[in-house]
Amino acid sequence: MITVYGYSVSGNCHKVRLLLEQLGRAYRWIEVDSSRGETRTPEFLARNPNGKVPVLERDDGRILTESNAMLYWLAEDTPYFVGDAWQRAQTLSWMFFEQYSHEPCVAVARFVCGWTPLDSPRRAELPRLRERGHQALAVMERHLRAHAWFSGADYGIADIALFAYTDVADHGGIALDTYPAIRAWLARVRATPRFVPMPPPPAEAAARIAQSA
Amino acid sequence: MITVYGYSVSGNCHKVRLLLEQLGRAYRWIEVDSSRGETRTPEFLARNPNGKVPVLERDDGRILTESNAMLYWLAEDTPYFVGDAWQRAQTLSWMFFEQYSHEPCVAVARFVCGWTPLDSPRRAELPRLRERGHQALAVMERHLRAHAWFSGADYGIADIALFAYTDVADHGGIALDTYPAIRAWLARVRATPRFVPMPPPPAEAAARIAQSA
User: Fold this and answer.
1) Is the pLDDT of residue B119 over 90?
2) Which of A46, B20, B94, B191 is the most buried (most CB within 10 A)?
3) Is this model's pTM higher than 0.90 or not?
4) Is position A80 within any domain?
5) Could B69 and A96 be called an inter-chain contact, meaning their C-beta atoms sit closer than 8 Å?
6) Do A92 and B101 touch (CB under 8 A)?
Protein backbone atom coordinates (compact mmCIF):
# COMPACT_ATOMS: atom_id res chain seq x y z
CA MET A 1 0.00 0.00 0.00
CA ILE A 2 1.14 3.50 -0.82
CA THR A 3 0.64 6.42 1.55
CA VAL A 4 0.44 9.94 0.13
CA TYR A 5 0.89 12.94 2.40
CA GLY A 6 -0.86 15.70 0.52
CA TYR A 7 -2.99 18.84 0.61
CA SER A 8 -6.06 17.94 -1.44
CA VAL A 9 -6.51 21.40 -3.00
CA SER A 10 -2.85 21.57 -4.16
CA GLY A 11 -2.45 20.79 -7.84
CA ASN A 12 0.91 19.15 -7.21
CA CYS A 13 -0.80 16.78 -4.77
CA HIS A 14 -3.88 16.25 -6.91
CA LYS A 15 -1.69 15.07 -9.81
CA VAL A 16 -0.71 12.04 -7.75
CA ARG A 17 -4.26 11.32 -6.60
CA LEU A 18 -5.54 11.57 -10.18
CA LEU A 19 -3.03 9.05 -11.50
CA LEU A 20 -3.56 6.68 -8.55
CA GLU A 21 -7.32 6.79 -9.19
CA GLN A 22 -6.89 6.25 -12.92
CA LEU A 23 -4.55 3.33 -12.30
CA GLY A 24 -7.01 1.86 -9.80
CA ARG A 25 -4.23 1.58 -7.22
CA ALA A 26 -5.03 1.29 -3.53
CA TYR A 27 -3.58 4.12 -1.46
CA ARG A 28 -3.91 5.87 1.87
CA TRP A 29 -4.15 9.68 1.82
CA ILE A 30 -3.03 11.68 4.85
CA GLU A 31 -4.14 15.30 4.65
CA VAL A 32 -1.33 17.80 5.36
CA ASP A 33 -2.39 21.44 5.14
CA SER A 34 0.75 23.16 3.88
CA SER A 35 -1.02 26.53 4.17
CA ARG A 36 -1.14 26.07 7.96
CA GLY A 37 2.52 25.16 8.46
CA GLU A 38 1.94 21.42 8.63
CA THR A 39 4.87 20.80 6.22
CA ARG A 40 7.25 22.62 8.60
CA THR A 41 6.90 20.35 11.64
CA PRO A 42 9.92 18.24 12.68
CA GLU A 43 7.89 15.10 11.94
CA PHE A 44 7.12 16.22 8.39
CA LEU A 45 10.64 17.50 7.72
CA ALA A 46 11.98 14.08 8.71
CA ARG A 47 10.02 12.71 5.73
CA ASN A 48 10.87 15.56 3.33
CA PRO A 49 13.64 17.96 4.40
CA ASN A 50 12.50 20.25 1.57
CA GLY A 51 9.24 20.82 3.46
CA LYS A 52 6.85 20.30 0.56
CA VAL A 53 3.86 18.12 -0.23
CA PRO A 54 3.22 15.67 -1.76
CA VAL A 55 5.31 12.96 -0.14
CA LEU A 56 4.86 9.33 -1.18
CA GLU A 57 5.71 6.65 1.37
CA ARG A 58 5.89 2.89 0.91
CA ASP A 59 5.08 0.32 3.59
CA ASP A 60 8.77 -0.23 4.30
CA GLY A 61 9.20 3.49 4.99
CA ARG A 62 10.96 4.37 1.74
CA ILE A 63 10.04 7.85 0.57
CA LEU A 64 9.74 9.63 -2.77
CA THR A 65 9.39 13.41 -3.10
CA GLU A 66 8.53 15.64 -6.09
CA SER A 67 5.11 15.15 -7.67
CA ASN A 68 6.42 14.59 -11.19
CA ALA A 69 8.92 11.95 -10.04
CA MET A 70 5.96 10.17 -8.41
CA LEU A 71 4.04 10.28 -11.71
CA TYR A 72 7.08 8.77 -13.44
CA TRP A 73 7.39 5.96 -10.89
CA LEU A 74 3.68 5.16 -10.72
CA ALA A 75 3.26 5.22 -14.52
CA GLU A 76 6.23 2.99 -15.37
CA ASP A 77 4.96 -0.02 -17.34
CA THR A 78 1.47 1.46 -17.67
CA PRO A 79 -0.26 3.17 -20.63
CA TYR A 80 0.32 6.55 -18.96
CA PHE A 81 4.04 6.65 -19.86
CA VAL A 82 4.75 5.03 -23.19
CA GLY A 83 6.92 5.34 -26.28
CA ASP A 84 10.59 5.01 -27.07
CA ALA A 85 13.30 6.91 -25.19
CA TRP A 86 12.83 9.96 -27.42
CA GLN A 87 9.07 10.10 -26.80
CA ARG A 88 9.56 9.59 -23.07
CA ALA A 89 12.09 12.41 -23.06
CA GLN A 90 9.49 14.64 -24.76
CA THR A 91 6.97 13.71 -22.06
CA LEU A 92 9.52 14.54 -19.35
CA SER A 93 10.40 17.76 -21.16
CA TRP A 94 6.80 18.94 -20.70
CA MET A 95 6.95 17.91 -17.04
CA PHE A 96 10.12 19.97 -16.50
CA PHE A 97 8.45 22.84 -18.39
CA GLU A 98 5.53 22.50 -15.99
CA GLN A 99 7.70 22.77 -12.90
CA TYR A 100 9.95 25.56 -14.20
CA SER A 101 7.85 27.76 -16.49
CA HIS A 102 4.22 27.02 -15.54
CA GLU A 103 3.75 26.09 -11.87
CA PRO A 104 5.87 28.97 -10.46
CA CYS A 105 3.49 31.47 -12.12
CA VAL A 106 0.09 29.79 -12.64
CA ALA A 107 0.07 27.96 -9.29
CA VAL A 108 1.74 30.74 -7.34
CA ALA A 109 -0.76 33.34 -8.66
CA ARG A 110 -3.55 31.05 -7.40
CA PHE A 111 -1.82 30.67 -4.03
CA VAL A 112 -1.35 34.43 -3.63
CA CYS A 113 -5.01 35.10 -4.53
CA GLY A 114 -6.50 32.40 -2.31
CA TRP A 115 -4.09 31.79 0.49
CA THR A 116 -2.61 35.19 1.42
CA PRO A 117 -4.46 38.06 3.13
CA LEU A 118 -6.13 40.60 0.86
CA ASP A 119 -3.58 43.21 1.98
CA SER A 120 -0.53 40.93 1.63
CA PRO A 121 2.52 42.60 0.06
CA ARG A 122 2.87 39.43 -2.02
CA ARG A 123 -0.10 40.66 -4.10
CA ALA A 124 2.30 43.09 -5.76
CA GLU A 125 3.75 40.01 -7.51
CA LEU A 126 0.45 39.24 -9.26
CA PRO A 127 0.88 41.27 -12.47
CA ARG A 128 4.24 39.65 -13.19
CA LEU A 129 3.01 36.17 -12.23
CA ARG A 130 0.02 36.56 -14.53
CA GLU A 131 2.16 37.84 -17.41
CA ARG A 132 4.52 34.87 -17.11
CA GLY A 133 1.58 32.51 -16.66
CA HIS A 134 0.15 33.69 -19.97
CA GLN A 135 3.55 33.11 -21.62
CA ALA A 136 3.48 29.48 -20.45
CA LEU A 137 -0.14 29.05 -21.58
CA ALA A 138 0.77 30.45 -25.01
CA VAL A 139 3.45 27.76 -25.37
CA MET A 140 0.88 25.10 -24.45
CA GLU A 141 -1.74 26.53 -26.82
CA ARG A 142 0.74 26.43 -29.68
CA HIS A 143 1.53 22.76 -29.00
CA LEU A 144 -2.14 21.83 -28.71
CA ARG A 145 -2.99 23.38 -32.08
CA ALA A 146 -1.07 20.49 -33.65
CA HIS A 147 -1.24 17.73 -31.01
CA ALA A 148 -4.03 16.22 -28.91
CA TRP A 149 -1.84 15.47 -25.88
CA PHE A 150 1.44 16.37 -24.15
CA SER A 151 2.47 12.73 -23.54
CA GLY A 152 2.68 11.53 -27.15
CA ALA A 153 -0.14 9.90 -29.11
CA ASP A 154 -2.30 9.43 -26.01
CA TYR A 155 -3.14 10.92 -22.64
CA GLY A 156 -0.43 10.38 -20.03
CA ILE A 157 1.62 11.78 -17.20
CA ALA A 158 2.64 15.04 -18.90
CA ASP A 159 -1.07 15.79 -19.38
CA ILE A 160 -1.75 15.00 -15.73
CA ALA A 161 1.13 17.26 -14.65
CA LEU A 162 -0.02 20.19 -16.80
CA PHE A 163 -3.75 19.72 -16.19
CA ALA A 164 -3.58 20.21 -12.43
CA TYR A 165 -2.97 23.95 -12.27
CA THR A 166 -4.11 24.88 -15.79
CA ASP A 167 -7.63 23.76 -14.90
CA VAL A 168 -7.71 26.26 -12.01
CA ALA A 169 -5.68 29.06 -13.63
CA ASP A 170 -8.67 31.38 -13.22
CA HIS A 171 -8.26 31.15 -9.42
CA GLY A 172 -5.10 33.20 -9.92
CA GLY A 173 -6.80 35.67 -12.25
CA ILE A 174 -5.42 34.01 -15.37
CA ALA A 175 -8.33 33.62 -17.79
CA LEU A 176 -8.35 30.89 -20.44
CA ASP A 177 -10.74 32.70 -22.83
CA THR A 178 -8.05 33.23 -25.47
CA TYR A 179 -6.82 29.62 -25.45
CA PRO A 180 -9.40 27.51 -27.32
CA ALA A 181 -7.01 24.59 -27.81
CA ILE A 182 -6.23 24.48 -24.08
CA ARG A 183 -9.94 24.55 -23.20
CA ALA A 184 -10.62 21.67 -25.60
CA TRP A 185 -7.70 19.70 -24.11
CA LEU A 186 -8.94 20.32 -20.54
CA ALA A 187 -12.30 18.87 -21.61
CA ARG A 188 -10.56 15.82 -23.12
CA VAL A 189 -8.65 15.26 -19.88
CA ARG A 190 -11.86 15.52 -17.83
CA ALA A 191 -13.39 12.85 -20.10
CA THR A 192 -10.62 10.27 -19.50
CA PRO A 193 -11.61 7.07 -17.64
CA ARG A 194 -11.79 7.33 -13.85
CA PHE A 195 -11.01 11.06 -13.90
CA VAL A 196 -11.47 12.75 -10.53
CA PRO A 197 -11.62 16.55 -10.15
CA MET A 198 -9.62 18.48 -7.59
CA PRO A 199 -11.85 19.58 -4.68
CA PRO A 200 -12.75 23.30 -4.59
CA PRO A 201 -10.66 25.59 -2.36
CA PRO A 202 -11.82 25.92 1.26
CA ALA A 203 -14.37 28.68 1.92
CA GLU A 204 -11.88 31.27 3.16
CA ALA A 205 -9.64 30.80 0.11
CA ALA A 206 -12.64 30.80 -2.24
CA ALA A 207 -13.81 34.13 -0.77
CA ARG A 208 -10.38 35.68 -1.28
CA ILE A 209 -10.19 34.34 -4.84
CA ALA A 210 -13.57 35.95 -5.58
CA GLN A 211 -12.18 39.29 -4.36
CA SER A 212 -8.88 39.02 -6.28
CA ALA A 213 -10.09 39.32 -9.87
CA MET B 1 25.11 14.03 -35.07
CA ILE B 2 23.47 16.11 -32.33
CA THR B 3 23.38 19.91 -32.42
CA VAL B 4 23.11 21.83 -29.16
CA TYR B 5 22.08 25.48 -29.19
CA GLY B 6 23.49 26.78 -25.93
CA TYR B 7 25.07 29.61 -23.99
CA SER B 8 28.36 28.16 -22.73
CA VAL B 9 28.35 30.00 -19.38
CA SER B 10 24.79 28.86 -18.55
CA GLY B 11 24.71 25.97 -16.11
CA ASN B 12 21.61 24.53 -17.78
CA CYS B 13 23.53 24.41 -21.07
CA HIS B 14 26.76 23.19 -19.51
CA LYS B 15 24.94 20.18 -18.04
CA VAL B 16 24.34 18.91 -21.55
CA ARG B 17 27.89 19.58 -22.71
CA LEU B 18 29.31 17.82 -19.65
CA LEU B 19 27.28 14.66 -20.26
CA LEU B 20 28.03 14.66 -24.00
CA GLU B 21 31.76 14.96 -23.22
CA GLN B 22 31.62 12.22 -20.60
CA LEU B 23 29.74 9.94 -22.99
CA GLY B 24 32.25 10.71 -25.75
CA ARG B 25 29.40 11.60 -28.11
CA ALA B 26 30.07 13.72 -31.17
CA TYR B 27 28.07 16.93 -31.19
CA ARG B 28 27.93 20.37 -32.78
CA TRP B 29 27.59 23.37 -30.42
CA ILE B 30 26.01 26.57 -31.69
CA GLU B 31 26.54 29.45 -29.29
CA VAL B 32 23.36 31.40 -28.49
CA ASP B 33 23.84 34.29 -26.07
CA SER B 34 20.55 34.38 -24.19
CA SER B 35 21.77 37.48 -22.29
CA ARG B 36 21.75 39.42 -25.59
CA GLY B 37 18.26 38.46 -26.72
CA GLU B 38 19.38 35.70 -29.07
CA THR B 39 16.72 33.32 -27.68
CA ARG B 40 13.97 35.80 -28.59
CA THR B 41 14.50 35.90 -32.36
CA PRO B 42 11.80 34.42 -34.64
CA GLU B 43 14.34 31.84 -35.83
CA PHE B 44 15.11 30.69 -32.29
CA LEU B 45 11.47 30.74 -31.16
CA ALA B 46 10.64 28.45 -34.08
CA ARG B 47 12.95 25.89 -32.43
CA ASN B 48 11.78 26.54 -28.86
CA PRO B 49 8.61 28.61 -28.41
CA ASN B 50 9.53 28.89 -24.71
CA GLY B 51 12.57 31.00 -25.72
CA LYS B 52 15.16 29.21 -23.59
CA VAL B 53 18.49 27.48 -24.10
CA PRO B 54 19.59 24.74 -24.34
CA VAL B 55 17.86 23.27 -27.37
CA LEU B 56 18.91 19.88 -28.72
CA GLU B 57 18.35 19.18 -32.42
CA ARG B 58 18.80 15.93 -34.31
CA ASP B 59 19.84 15.69 -37.96
CA ASP B 60 16.28 15.11 -39.06
CA GLY B 61 15.24 18.36 -37.38
CA ARG B 62 13.53 16.81 -34.36
CA ILE B 63 13.94 18.97 -31.27
CA LEU B 64 14.13 18.40 -27.52
CA THR B 65 13.92 21.21 -24.96
CA GLU B 66 14.58 21.29 -21.19
CA SER B 67 18.11 20.46 -20.06
CA ASN B 68 17.09 17.71 -17.65
CA ALA B 69 14.98 15.96 -20.30
CA MET B 70 18.09 16.00 -22.51
CA LEU B 71 20.14 14.39 -19.72
CA TYR B 72 17.46 11.70 -19.42
CA TRP B 73 17.47 10.99 -23.15
CA LEU B 74 21.25 11.04 -23.57
CA ALA B 75 21.83 8.87 -20.49
CA GLU B 76 19.30 6.15 -21.33
CA ASP B 77 21.13 2.80 -21.51
CA THR B 78 24.36 4.31 -20.16
CA PRO B 79 25.95 4.13 -16.68
CA TYR B 80 24.76 7.69 -16.02
CA PHE B 81 21.13 6.64 -15.43
CA VAL B 82 20.85 3.25 -13.80
CA GLY B 83 18.84 1.31 -11.27
CA ASP B 84 15.30 0.00 -11.03
CA ALA B 85 12.23 2.19 -11.53
CA TRP B 86 12.33 3.32 -7.88
CA GLN B 87 15.99 4.37 -8.09
CA ARG B 88 15.38 6.15 -11.39
CA ALA B 89 12.44 7.98 -9.82
CA GLN B 90 14.76 9.09 -6.98
CA THR B 91 17.24 10.38 -9.57
CA LEU B 92 14.46 12.26 -11.36
CA SER B 93 13.19 13.56 -8.00
CA TRP B 94 16.54 15.33 -7.47
CA MET B 95 16.34 16.70 -11.02
CA PHE B 96 12.87 18.13 -10.38
CA PHE B 97 14.17 19.51 -7.05
CA GLU B 98 16.99 21.14 -9.02
CA GLN B 99 14.63 22.88 -11.42
CA TYR B 100 12.05 23.93 -8.82
CA SER B 101 13.90 24.60 -5.56
CA HIS B 102 17.54 25.15 -6.56
CA GLU B 103 17.97 26.72 -10.01
CA PRO B 104 15.35 29.48 -9.51
CA CYS B 105 17.39 30.81 -6.55
CA VAL B 106 21.03 29.71 -6.98
CA ALA B 107 21.17 30.29 -10.75
CA VAL B 108 18.99 33.38 -10.71
CA ALA B 109 21.12 35.01 -7.96
CA ARG B 110 24.16 34.43 -10.20
CA PHE B 111 22.33 35.88 -13.20
CA VAL B 112 21.25 38.99 -11.27
CA CYS B 113 24.81 39.55 -9.96
CA GLY B 114 26.58 39.03 -13.28
CA TRP B 115 24.13 39.86 -16.03
CA THR B 116 22.09 42.83 -14.76
CA PRO B 117 23.39 46.41 -14.29
CA LEU B 118 24.76 47.27 -10.86
CA ASP B 119 21.79 49.59 -10.32
CA SER B 120 19.15 47.13 -11.59
CA PRO B 121 15.97 47.01 -9.48
CA ARG B 122 16.24 43.22 -9.74
CA ARG B 123 19.08 43.39 -7.21
CA ALA B 124 16.42 43.91 -4.54
CA GLU B 125 15.56 40.23 -5.08
CA LEU B 126 19.03 39.08 -3.98
CA PRO B 127 18.46 38.65 -0.22
CA ARG B 128 15.43 36.43 -0.82
CA LEU B 129 17.15 34.47 -3.62
CA ARG B 130 20.16 33.85 -1.39
CA GLU B 131 17.98 32.80 1.55
CA ARG B 132 16.10 30.29 -0.60
CA GLY B 133 19.37 29.17 -2.23
CA HIS B 134 20.74 28.33 1.20
CA GLN B 135 17.58 26.35 1.97
CA ALA B 136 18.16 24.23 -1.14
CA LEU B 137 21.84 23.76 -0.31
CA ALA B 138 20.92 22.65 3.21
CA VAL B 139 18.71 19.92 1.73
CA MET B 140 21.61 18.79 -0.48
CA GLU B 141 24.09 18.89 2.43
CA ARG B 142 21.81 16.70 4.52
CA HIS B 143 21.57 14.12 1.71
CA LEU B 144 25.33 14.13 1.11
CA ARG B 145 26.09 13.45 4.76
CA ALA B 146 24.73 9.94 4.18
CA HIS B 147 25.19 9.40 0.42
CA ALA B 148 28.06 9.92 -2.02
CA TRP B 149 25.86 10.83 -5.00
CA PHE B 150 22.40 12.05 -6.00
CA SER B 151 21.93 9.42 -8.73
CA GLY B 152 22.09 6.26 -6.62
CA ALA B 153 25.23 4.25 -5.90
CA ASP B 154 27.27 6.09 -8.51
CA TYR B 155 27.68 9.44 -10.26
CA GLY B 156 24.97 10.15 -12.81
CA ILE B 157 22.57 12.64 -14.31
CA ALA B 158 21.15 14.01 -11.04
CA ASP B 159 24.72 14.88 -10.02
CA ILE B 160 25.31 16.57 -13.37
CA ALA B 161 22.07 18.54 -13.01
CA LEU B 162 22.86 19.71 -9.47
CA PHE B 163 26.58 20.28 -10.03
CA ALA B 164 26.17 22.91 -12.74
CA TYR B 165 24.93 25.84 -10.64
CA THR B 166 26.11 24.62 -7.22
CA ASP B 167 29.71 24.83 -8.42
CA VAL B 168 29.24 28.55 -9.20
CA ALA B 169 26.89 29.44 -6.34
CA ASP B 170 29.47 31.98 -5.11
CA HIS B 171 28.88 34.02 -8.30
CA GLY B 172 25.49 34.83 -6.82
CA GLY B 173 26.89 35.60 -3.41
CA ILE B 174 25.96 32.22 -1.98
CA ALA B 175 29.02 30.90 -0.14
CA LEU B 176 29.59 27.18 0.33
CA ASP B 177 31.79 27.52 3.45
CA THR B 178 29.22 25.93 5.73
CA TYR B 179 28.57 22.93 3.46
CA PRO B 180 31.52 20.55 3.81
CA ALA B 181 29.65 17.59 2.31
CA ILE B 182 28.71 19.64 -0.76
CA ARG B 183 32.30 20.79 -1.22
CA ALA B 184 33.56 17.20 -1.02
CA TRP B 185 30.90 16.12 -3.55
CA LEU B 186 31.85 18.94 -5.94
CA ALA B 187 35.43 17.68 -5.79
CA ARG B 188 34.26 14.12 -6.51
CA VAL B 189 32.30 15.33 -9.54
CA ARG B 190 35.32 17.28 -10.84
CA ALA B 191 37.36 14.06 -10.57
CA THR B 192 35.00 11.98 -12.75
CA PRO B 193 36.38 10.75 -16.09
CA ARG B 194 36.32 13.27 -18.96
CA PHE B 195 34.98 16.03 -16.70
CA VAL B 196 34.98 19.47 -18.35
CA PRO B 197 34.53 22.68 -16.35
CA MET B 198 32.12 25.42 -17.34
CA PRO B 199 33.99 28.39 -18.85
CA PRO B 200 34.29 31.49 -16.63
CA PRO B 201 31.75 34.30 -17.13
CA PRO B 202 32.65 36.92 -19.75
CA ALA B 203 34.71 39.89 -18.49
CA GLU B 204 31.79 42.27 -18.03
CA ALA B 205 29.81 39.70 -16.02
CA ALA B 206 32.89 38.77 -13.98
CA ALA B 207 33.45 42.42 -13.09
CA ARG B 208 29.85 42.80 -11.91
CA ILE B 209 30.06 39.57 -9.90
CA ALA B 210 33.18 40.91 -8.17
CA GLN B 211 31.23 44.04 -7.20
CA SER B 212 28.12 42.16 -6.00
CA ALA B 213 29.46 40.42 -2.88
Assistant:
1) yes
2) B94
3) yes
4) no
5) yes
6) no
